[in-house]
Amino acid sequence: MAVTGSSLQSLGESGVYDPKRTALAAFVYFQIGLTVFRFLLFRWAWKLALWTWFLWRVSRLDLHLLPGHPDRDGGLGRLEGVHERFTPLVAAISVLECSAMVEAFSSGTFATSDAYLLLALVLLLEAAVVFGPLLVFIDKLCVGRLKGMAVYSSLASRYVAGFEAKWTSGRSPEDEKLLGTPDLQSLADLANSFSVVRSMRWITIGPRLLTMMAMAALVPFSPLLLFKYPLAELAQKLIQHLVGM
After folding, report:
1. I need a surface site. Which of 61, 103, 140, 204 has the fewest CB within 10 A?
2. Contact, 67 vs 200, CB < 8 A?
3. pTM score of the predicted model
4. Running DSSP on this structure, what letter comes out for residue 120?
5. H-type helices in the chain, by residue range?
């Protein structure tokens, strides 16, 4: 059923007069359901537009990014927490598209083999809606990573040169033992810090955000598998495998 439309008709079919449209259910659907739906839709769109504008304004500032920050985003990792709030929006888009595709499959106006392209387009749209605003920091993060690599490489070179001059040149200090010296731990800590700088991301999208958005986008489409693999057929095959018949 076309959710945002103005008539009770299946996708791909022509609208015909339905006397049931004057019933209470139709009145609630058109006058209340669609009104609330459109309000929520435009509310989410407005919030996303404001957030995108805010991020763009922030990205134009002279940001002092920290390449050694453990979030691997130069200190911008908190933005991922904000974008996790858009998970319900992604799930809602998937639910709407799934319901529309189910209606089209049931009416025979859309083949199940054609769903892959539409599914890819929906996922691409959701990725652009959610991850698009974060792309404004690409230039800042790339420049910050290059500067951080240069600074930490220089720092590592100075420290390693001093470490080798002290411990590997054959002139170790007699009043200090190699076993238990804090210089070794400092060298390991420096290596960890350099690894953090080298793995600094060019976009503020971490594994947690990707996982949450992928689940919110794909899980609502799982009922579509029943059109290709009917539940009764799956149960029959399972029983056959269990009993060996």
Report:
1. 61
2. yes
3. 0.71
4. H
5. 24-27, 34-59, 78-83, 87-107, 115-131, 138-167, 182-198, 207-218, 225-228, 231-243
